Structures are given as structure tokens and as C-alpha cells.
Amino acid sequence: MRSLASVKTIGAIGSIFVLLTAVPTAGSLLGIIGFIMILIAIKDISDTVADKSIFSNMLVAVGLAIVAIVVGALVVVGSVLRFVGLKALSVGSSFNASTVPTGDWVGLIGSILVGLAVVWVIMLVSAVYVRRTYTSMASKLGVSTFETAGMLYLVGAATTIILVGFVLLLVAQVMVIIAFFSIEERPPAVAGQPLQPTGVNRSMEAGP
């Protein structure tokens, strides 16, 4: 089992890599590596604080996210292929989008929107489990920033439908980086008892 010092480094670097996913060319690879590093860090924290729900909740979140991606891809690609295929059969190889009735375009767009709505719902449920993971980590490690990140992630996932959510998700990821760097290199909660936040500990040590 890795020490908290190693865990905070792995988690923080992994979170930074995830934040760099948008970087051209190498971004996707960095994002995948970073995501794996975050999972490793969360697994170690889950074992260290003896709370298996921390990692299991994150696994559920990951599984739901994968399902959402697959469903979204199948619905969008399937709708487009079905639309183009049927039109090609009806008008021959000389398919011309301008000749397609407006009603058919509405049907295509409608089916895609329904598929995206299903994806949104699944991702929202996934975000609930992400929040549970970070809330538990905040309680066990005494790092309230994790709880803030979890809340931002949930609200961001809920508001992606109006686009502003993507900004909140970005902020949430930044908060995760800060949270990992804020983990103290000390024994975690024992027997399910949460640690006190850093500020409380320091004020107690300073005395009146």
C-alpha cells in the first residue's frame, strides 16, 4: 500500500494530465494516463482509510460514463446511417441532401436529441457517484476541497445541457488538483472516524 505522500503525487499529476486532454495530438493520451493515475490514487486512499465505498462508487461512475459514451455513439451513428441509407435506397446513388423533405430532417434531429438526452441522464447519475466518492474522501482525509470538487462536478454535469456546465466541469477538475495537493502526509481516519480539517487541527495546536 502506497503512502499518502505517494498517493497525493499520483493523484495530483493524474488530475493535471486529465486537464490537458484538450491539448492537440498528445492530449487524448495524457487524459487516459491521467485518468488511470487518478483511479490508482483513489483505490489507495480507499484501502488506506478502510472505506471500500470510495473506490466502488468511482467504479460505478466510470462504468456509467462508458455506457453513456457507447449509447451516445450508437444512437448518433445509427440514426445518421439509417437516415442516409434509407434515402439512398429511395432516391438511388445520386443522393442529394437538398431533396430530402423537411420532415425527415426533423425526424433525424429528433432521434439524435433523444439519444443525447439519454446520455445526459446517464452521465448525471454517473456524476452522483463521483460526488459520493469525493465527499467520502473529504470526510476521511479532512480535505474539504474534495467535497467542493464533487459538488461542482455534479452541478456541471447537470448543466452541460445549457453548455455552462462544461465550464463548471473544468473548474471542478482544477479543484481536484488542489485537493490532491492538499492531502496531508499523516495517518488517515481510523475505524471510520473522519479526520478534522487542517485549519481546525492547526488552531487547536496553536491554543487560545
Give the tally of β-strands.
0
Integer tally of domains = 1
Assembly type: single chain
Roughly what fraction of the amino acids lie in strands?
under 5%
Q: Pairing-aware structural class of the strands and helices?
A: mainly alpha
Q: Characterize the largest beta sheet: strand count, sense, and whether it forms a barrel.
A: none
What's the pLDDT, averaged over the residues? 82
Q: Which descriptor suits the 3D outline?
A: elongated
Which consecutive residue ranges, at least 5 long each, have pLDDT under 50? 189-208
> How large, in whole angstroms, is the Cα Rg?
22 Å
Number of helices: 7
Structure notes:
By secondary structure, the protein is mostly helical. The chain has one domain. Helices cover 77% and strands 0% of the residues. It has helices spanning 4-19, 27-48, 52-91, 102-141, 144-158, 164-181, 198-206. Helix 1 (4-19) packs antiparallel against helix 2, helix 2 (27-48) packs antiparallel against helix 3 (52-91) and helix 5 (144-158) runs antiparallel to helix 6. The longest helix is centred in the middle third of the chain and has 40 residues, at 52-91. It is elongated.
